[in-house]
Design goal:
439 residues; alpha+beta; two-stranded antiparallel ribbon; 11 helices; elongated; transmembrane transporter activity; ABC3_permease_C; cell membrane
Amino acid sequence: MIRLSGRFRSALIIGGQGIRARKTRTLLSMVSLFLGVLAVVVVQLGAELAERAQLANLELQVGKDGTRQGFLSGDANSVRISQETLAGRPDATAILNLQAIIGEPDVTPVNPGAAPFDQPGMFGNYRTTCDMSGNCYSVGLDAAGVEAAVPGAAIELSLLALTGDVRQFKPFRSVAGDWLDFSSTPSLAPGLVINEEAAKGFARYQVPAEMRVVGATANPTPRIIGVVDDGNQQPTAYARADEMGNWLPTLTGGGNYGPGLQVMLAPTALDAEQLLRVRMVAAGVPAEQIHFETINARERIAKELALFRWIFLGMAGLVLLIGVAGILNVGLATVGERVEEFALRRAVGTPRSLLAGIVLAETLLTGLFTAALAIGLCAAGVSAASAIFGGQQQFLQDLVFPWEAGVAGVIAGLVAGVLGGLIPAVRAARIPIATVMRA
């Protein structure tokens, strides 16, 4: 072991001296290899960024990994039990789906069915009507399929009533204003936090501050207190459930926009989940209808990202092979120039394995230097992107260079060094001692 260790050390020392003595050829080898190693690092980095971007979008819409969620009936009894069970718990929240129209009363909203404002008619109950001139437009229909009131200055929203702060489960990015304050006394003027799609509608249309909710005793006057990015293309507003309860004698959920009641719990809130199950069953809800699951958004995108990663790694491998060919070409030329040196070393007793190790050490060190340069360039680019674009894209905030990309770069550099130096190393080891006599 000591003898092998000494040969390895000697090969590294002599290989380093060879690199220093032939700076131009080393630079040419690094240039030919740089793009290949950089491609491998960029592919790995891109895969990590793509996973982070998709995971960030899924967290906005679905929730963070590990969160326990359940979908229950939105009847009044289920809503009451959920509110009582989760009251005052910071690690749980219930989300009640409601329908709301803000604007003039007894008119059809500009976006029937809470459709996106650039895609009218995407949601909801409507039909297309054309006049004698050939102009077509969407007409809202009521629950019975009868043409609704005339269009007017009103906007329809998906209204989510919350019993607690949902941002611990769905990390909404604040765009403007404030979030809901659950510690204050419920107001008779419900505070609303709207998403960016809803903000687009209120910026485009001027509507009165009057909100219609099915089942309300009167039309309350809402207050828009903030705007968030929730990753949802449907106009959506978030409100406190207790503030909506001031106007709704019996809170119930459901309608056209999703499940009636959604419960989200922290992984540590198992006692709340069990208590909720027991109370629901005691109230007559069948046990098989009470189902909770753990959110695992990363698993959803893992297979898709893995496929794209292997495809692009294959393309990067082709670029890396071009770099390997460059190192091989330079290595063969270098061995050809050093035939007399290697023959003399053989004549004074240098083993063939050490000669091969010297050549391999040069190519391996070249590959490692190139990998370090490519990794450093990508790390600097990641830091710059996070500093410049972190405020615009959530997945770029507090971004650090992933260690997986660094490891991939080092492995690519080592593999390229071995592949590019193997044939020159074998040729150097086979140089006969008699060559020194001919020289």
